[in-house]
Design brief:
It is a single chain. The chain has 197 residues and is an all-alpha fold. It has 2 domains: 13-116, no CATH class; 120-197, no CATH class. It has 10 helices and 2 strands; from the N terminus they run αααααααααββα. The chain has a two-stranded antiparallel ribbon with strand order 1-2. Strand 1 (179-180) and strand 2 (184-185) form a beta hairpin. Helix 2 (50-60) runs antiparallel to helix 3 and helix 5 packs across helix 6.
Length: 197
């Protein structure tokens, strides 16, 4: 694998590698930001083990839906077992990170990934469910790069004219565009503009 020649810049493999790399960078930035915000919140509230909870949040944030839910539950044993934790600290440790995880996981990530990978947020959420069913937690972690790679491959087939009208339909489905069962997928806005000129 190490001795393999690098892929040409215009190849399909290069496009897929770029998409996966962009996903990993974006997901890492989001995870670090969420972990820092959780640490800052818990440190301001003087909550015990704030750094440990933030580090576990960083790791767990890479697992969609399940990871943030577990990260949200991390302060509960400390709240129940530490008699020095005040009710205000407990409230802040549960509510603020919970709202943060909810907002990032259900609003921010689908919007950012949708813009970055030319997919609608609904497509990303549906792909998360489908890949979870297929491969469980591993599929959930890989849902966005797998769906993005599938979209790139179908778009390559559409541009090559292979497998029409089925590839047109699948490409439109993966991008969240409207479709017609009789004529296949509707043309992209760029293609409609080219026809008019």
């Amino acid at each position: 694998m190490l001795l393999e020649a690098p892929a040409p810049t215009s190849s399909l493999r290069k496009k897929i590698d770029d998409a996966v790399s962009r996903y990993l960078v974006l997901k890492s930035l989001i995870s670090v930001s969420v972990a820092f915000a959780v640490y800052l919140t818990l440190a301001i509230a003087s909550f015990p083990l704030a750094l440990l909870i933030a580090l576990l949040t960083l790791v767990l944030n890479f697992i969609p839906n399940v990871g943030p839910a577990v990260a949200f539950l991390l302060p509960i044993p400390i709240i129940l077992l530490d008699p020095d934790v005040k009710p205000k600290q407990a409230w802040v440790a549960m509510v603020v990170p919970g709202l943060l995880h909810l907002t990032v996981g259900n609003v921010l990530e689908p919007l950012l990934f949708g813009r970055q990978f030319s997919m609608k947020p609904l497509v990303i959420l549906l792909s998360l469910g489908i890949w979870w069913i297929v491969w469980g937690p591993v599929g959930a972690v890989l849902a966005v790069p797998l769906t993005s790679s599938l979209r790139i491959v179908t778009q390559h087939f559409v541009e090559s004219g292979v497998g029409r009208p089925y590839m047109d339909f699948l490409a439109a489905l993966l991008e969240g565009r409207t479709m017609s069962l009789r004529t296949g997928a509707t043309p992209r806005p760029e293609a409609r503009a080219e026809k008019k000129t």
